[in-house]
Amino acid sequence: MSKYTTTKQMYSMDVMRVSDNHACGFMCSNVWHENDELYMDAILYVEGDTLPDGKKVGDVMIEADTLPDGKKFGDVKTAGRGWLQEDFNWDTELQATFGEVDADLKKELTDYFTTDLKAKYLANQKGE
Length: 128
Hints:
Elements lengths: L3 E5 L3 E6 L5 E5 L2 E5 L2 E2 L4 E2 L15 E3 L13 E3 L3 E5 L3 H9 L4 H10 L2 H12 L2
Antiparallel strand pairs: 1-2, 2-3, 4-9, 5-8, 6-7
């Protein structure tokens, strides 16, 4: 009998250690979107904001960016990288979750989380 039971989902796998029912769900990969950073004008406190002591509506909440020559608020300050995907380090994840790296469980994860499955997950998160 295996030390762990697994349940495969569309883009993840639920894992439970049989001895103590300690469980965790693992996604096939880490996916996120990195947006552009824009030059921003000052943000002021408005009616309805929670005002810190000494502040009133119209005071500056966040200072404006300093604009280089030729730039205006709303221009791109730093270009984002768009949609990103990175693989998990299963040794690190399993050690942190279960206090051990079980070779059979690691193989099951890596065999299920194929390159094709990760590509489908990325497309799903992008809304394609």
